[in-house]
Amino acid sequence: MTRALLTVVAAGGLLAGCSSSFNAPRDAQSGAAQARWRSSVDAIGKPISEADLSAWNIDVAPDGHGLPNGSGDVATGGRIFAAKCAACHGAKGEGLIGDQLIGGAGTLATPNPKRTVGSYWPYATTLFDYIRRAMPYNAPQSLSADEVYALSAWILNRNGIVPDDARLDAQTLAAIRMPNRDGFVPDPRPGKL
Ligand code: HEC
User: Does residue 88 line the site of ligand 1, with CB under 6 A?
Assistant: First the structure.
């Protein structure tokens, strides 16, 4: 008996999920009840201000969309790296308690692949996004846009990807083609990106 009932309930649930009758109970409420529900929901929270939103809205797309104004060069990046990053990533980005950031070129197809920013990451714009969002590990989001451009320039330079005199900004960073850009393939399974 209980089993039969459960089956019916489950089938009903499936049907409801597949058709527009899903909202039927709410539709059946009186207009006044719906208005009360709506105003109680509207009373929760308040609209976020542009200023508060911009502090969270910091993602940078692979094509560079979302990169801020500003710029930074390799030499400046080297100085910032020594002061704020080397303690964890090593003076040459060789890795300590933080990941190795530099080197590993040509190792991906070997039995001992070294997946670094230089050898592995497909987009330079992701480097900017990651540093701005998460580093230094002990003080995330404390760096200015100029500092993040400079750090990106130094890390890419030491990986042999940009020249010593490179100055990166939104345009020049997005234009960089990373060595492993074509090393990723789309997942062909349906429903996957
Ligand atoms: C207190 C230690 C510490 C400091 C300081 C630090 N990092 Fe990191 N960093 C880490 C750790 C730990 C990770 C790995 C985090 C994870 O996997 O979640 C990391 C990861 C990274 C990565 C991603 C590497 C990869 O291949 O996934 C980058 C890029 C990076 N750090 C850059 C920097 C830069 C630039 C600075 C200086 C502004 C910095 N870090 C300062 C500890 C640190």
Answer: yes
